Amino acid sequence: MTASGTEGKADAIVRRLTGGYLCLLGILIALLPLMAISYLALFQDPKRRFEAPGLYEASSLLAIALGAFITYVTWRCYLASGEVFLRWLVLAFMSFTLIYLPHALLSQISDDMMDVFIAYGPASRLAMGVCFLVALERLGVPPDSPETRRRPATWGVALGIILTINLGLAALILNPLVRAENMIQAMEALAFVLLVVSIIVIILRRIRLSLMIVYMLSMAVFAQASVAFMISDLWSHLWWLAHAIFLAGFFLLSYGVVHAFHTTRSFSTVYSQAEVMEQLREQQAQTQEALAKLEAINARLNQQAATDWLTGVANRRYFMKQAKGELAQAKRDGTPLSLLGLDLDHFKKVNDVYGHQAGDEVLKRVTSVIAEKLRPSDLLARVGGEEFQILLPNADIQQAYEIAERCRLAVHDLAIRLLDKEVKITISMGCAQMGRDGNDMDSLMRIGDQRLYEAKAGGRDRVVTGAGEVFHV
Ligand SMILES: Nc1nc2c(ncn2[C@@H]2O[C@H](COP(=O)(O)OP(=O)(O)OP(=O)(O)O)[C@@H](O)[C@H]2O)c(=O)[nH]1
């Protein structure tokens, strides 16, 4: 195995180990309240009391203020994202705040109302627990439309239900047929069960969203707070601890909401750094792929824009652009450069006798034969129907003539069969050299064309290099 392979394997093992360690840390943090509860319940006198209604009322009102603030922040997140999960989280915080309110206000009341005061505590946690579970069940469903989000009826109904709970609960507890203590314990136990079910749902549904870790931790902390409430007496140290644990759960969850508010305003689309990095990697790979495709398309388009559709050699536009560049370069370097004007002889006859398609075939064959005789640095272009230009860098008129002759002979020797007949094709060419015949492309092409006509006039199938000079085989 290679060094990088061994390193990769070691990396994978450490990743697994640290992943397991993180899991263990999560469980330990989630169970910290249980340690505090056990310490108080087992090693201290659980009956020790600290009766301070004034302090209690102040801290309860603070909790109400915090609840109202977090309800508002969650509502703002819901308005922005429309996430149904968040709608239920708003309802959870709202019901806690409004059901806990009478509990906070009634802490200094007379003893015969004590049960009513106590009952609002577990009732607020139970209502929250119900909403938490429904929120989980609604996680991932399509978001509410902007109109639905702002519909007052939703919140009006929720307020009505909460008010009914508040009034109904007082009536129930004051009913002599109901055993208040049992009812209070039952509500607390039910809240506990719902919170545990929420945790089980997150585990079974394998919800790996980063804020869901926070959600699950707070569910665990709330559940332990309920345990502490169930086993504690009013004003005992354990009872105060239960409140502190509940507050810790509330802090955790509110952290999640505030984090969502500062990022995507949706609980399910707040990603951990590892997830963001992964998404970034994926997007970078996609961008690279798209870029490579675009470059390939661009190259193909450029190639198409520069190429003659029939013969595949350069077209007039590309030739003119390249030729100007080569001319300037040759002038700078002081090297020779020549140009050949080329035309097929009596090509009209080919078309007339064998048809346009056969004519096309002849053009392709002749082009390919000429291309074979050129140097890689030469540039062959079809600039008209059966007219071509050949740019010859680093070639004086003598070398140009030799190349032209090579091409002419190759075409001359070409055997093309059309309609079962062997057809002879010839070409005529006119040469021009930079400096000798002109200093710009227009002059060189004009002189090249003039010599080409001279070659035609002289009997075709020949190359003309200068006034009076007519070469032929
Ligand atoms: N098959 C085919 N024919 C073409 C194409 N472009 C031009 N032509 C034909 O090429 C012929 C050119 O004819 P002329 O200009 O009279 O020249 P020529 O018959 O070759 O005679 P000389 O040049 O004097 O030897 C015409 O018949 C055009 O229709 C093409 O793309 N395909």
TrEMBL record:
**An example molecular function term from Gene Ontology annotations:** diguanylate cyclase activity
Q: Which GO terms describe its cellular component?
A: plasma membrane
Question: Pfam families given for it?
Answer: GGDEF
Q: Which residues form the GGDEF domain?
A: 335-468
Q: Where are the transmembrane segments?
A: 21-42, 54-73, 85-105, 117-136, 157-178, 184-204, 211-232, 238-258
Catalytic activity as recorded in UniProt: 2 GTP = 3',3'-c-di-GMP + 2 diphosphate
What's one GO BP annotation on this UniProt entry? cell adhesion involved in single-species biofilm formation
Per its Swiss-Prot or TrEMBL entry, what cofactor is needed? Mg(2+)
InterPro entries to which the protein is assigned, alphabetical: Diguanylate_Cyclase, GGDEF_dom, Nucleotide_cyclase, Rev_trsase/Diguanyl_cyclase
- UniProt-listed SMART domains: GGDEF
Q: Name the NCBIfam families for this protein.
A: GGDEF
Protein name per UniProt:
diguanylate cyclase
